[in-house]
Structure formats: structure tokens, C-alpha cells
Amino acid sequence: MPSWNTCGNFGFDLSEDSLLREAHLMEGTMICHLHVAGLEACQNMDEHLSSLAHAYWSVRFVRVPLSLQSGLLPQLCLPHEPALLVFKAGAVLAKAPLHVFTRDKTLLEEQVTKWLRRNGSIAADDQPAAHKRASKDSSGSSSGDDDGDWIEPCLVCGRRYYHEHVRNLQTGGVLGDSDSDE
User: Which residues does the annotated region (Disordered) include (predicted)?
Assistant: First the structure.
């Protein structure tokens, strides 16, 4: 299977068989997206986790494709659907099916981030790396008194944290192809 992305702590595709083994070997925090290929909510979750991975370098982010005959989900007491898992020091710290973070088939990224902060996967007082870069003043010192302010809103979508917009090539788009009137 091709690599999800290769950004430091992010983008490892693991098989169902190797997930628990990797989690037990992991000393820190590992966030795992159990995903189903072609599902829009899963693609949106991948993009959101990618943005979080760029901001929180101490956490490892992985993805595990689910199969129809998955033995992993019953073992983790999860329904047969995409989910988000958090492992800390080899044990399952938190788990939630993907539908918890969606409304009308739309991923609520803020809910994902809040959930990860609530269960201690990403520190609530940690600021993403992009925010730390944006809050540097001209002398190079960080202004620590800005109480949770984020970077300026993205001109495309309005998000206030580091992220990248990636065009999905699997839905018929061709690299270099621009939107045209039909």
C-alpha cells in the first residue's frame, strides 16, 4: 500500500495485524485513524490529522485501512466503522467511532481537536508550531500572553491553524488539471 504521507511523525500506513504490536512498542502517544478507502469523512480526517501532525511533533500519527473481515474492531470493542484511537505507552487511552465527529456527513474538525485535547493526546496548553512561528515578535521572543489566539484565518476555508489544502486525485481529478466550465 502506498505511504499516506511521510512527514516525520506522520503518515505511516500500518496493517491491522501490526497496529497493536507497534502501539505496544511505542513509548509516547500514537493517534491511529482506522479508515475506509473512498469515504469522504475519512479523507477529511486524514487531512485534519495531517495538519495536527505538522503542529504536534511529539505525537505519532498512523492510519490503518479496515477490511470487511476486520478482527481488530471486535478486539477493540468498536463497531464495524471508521474510528479514531489513541494509544499512550502501549495501552489504549481513548477510542471513538468516526460518526461521533461528523454531522450530516461533514467532519467537525474542531470536535476532533477538542476530543484529542480532552483525553491528553495533544496538550491543551501546547500551541501548534505554526502559531508559535506567528506569535514571534521582531526581537525573536515568543509572546506568551496571547491567551489561545490562533494564526490569521486561511483565505480559502477560514481555519485558524496550520494546514494544507490537498486536491484528491482519486475522484477523477488529474494532476495539473484545472476546474473548467462544463
Answer: 124-149
